[in-house]
Amino acid sequence: MTSSTVPRPRRPAARPGVAWTLPAVVFFTLFALVPLLLVAVLAFTDWSGLDTPHFNGLGNWRTLFADPVLLHSVWLSVLLTLLGVVVQTPLSIALGVWAAGRQRNRAVLSAIFFVPLLLSATAVSVLWRALLDPNFGIPSELGWLFGDGNLFGKQSTAIGVLVFVAAWQFTPLHTLIYQGAARAIPEVLYQAAAIDGAGRWRQFFHVTLPQLRNSVITSVILMIVGGLTTFDTVLILTQGGPGTDTTITAYYMYDKAFKSFDYGTGSAVALLLVLVATLISLVVVRLSGYDRMTGTQEGI
């Protein structure tokens, strides 16, 4: 063999330079860090949005914690988030595992199911507000099921509507996560389970679910962050009502800042919401072991 035919050793691929991160860093700084810093500053000022902000120390915070609506809104935000996780997680896992299979017409049915994911939260809220209208919507035609039809007139049914609409729109997103993870599970694991006599249900609980553990943690964290920061659905469907029964923290912030023109207090609520969401996310990461996540054959 001549020297000309001897393969040359491959040079190791060079890592991208720091300059490649510059656009992302600039974007994150301008649209995340700077606004967050401004909100943190305004949280300690008295500002109507028109005049010059005046520093008032802890005045906004004393006002907030003296308002029972604030604590109620935090509780509602946590409740809606927990209900979203409880409802969407099993649905997403079941649909994701099913969509990862090879059933007949699976691709067509999956495409139809993913349509809500393409719509904005505002469009979805307007759609369901019209469909659930007590005067000319579905409840008015099915009195035997919905009673007086006013689903937005009681706290329990209004919260149920919010949970349902959120699940209808965002379950497809989490289904995609589980679909990709389920397709990445090595087939040899199912073959070994079948040889050991495991049926379909035992394979699901002893092979599929353990392999989806990391995906479940990722999906739940996304649900928590999305649930605590949701706003437009409540604004369009219930407007915080009846009374303040569905006034979550994000809507409470909107009410203080943009309806009462108290931007200082509204900024304090926004900062509190960021702190609560961050704290809950950190607790979930710590308790779930997300920060110590190791591979479970996903992606192979």
From TrEMBL:
Report keywords, A-Z: Cell membrane, Membrane, Transmembrane, Transmembrane helix, Transport
- Where is the major localization of this protein? membrane
Q: Where is the ABC transmembrane type-1 domain?
A: 74-284
Q: What membrane topology is given? A: Multi-pass membrane protein
SUPFAM superfamilies, per database record? MetI-like
Q: Which InterPro entries match?
A: ABC_transporter_permease, MetI-like, MetI-like_sf
Where on the tree of life does the source sit, at the highest rank? Bacteria
* Spans traversing the lipid bilayer: 20-44, 74-100, 107-131, 151-170, 216-237, 263-285
UniProt similarity note: Belongs to the binding-protein-dependent transport system permease family.
- The protein's name is Sugar ABC transporter permease
Q: Which organism is it from?
A: Streptomyces evansiae
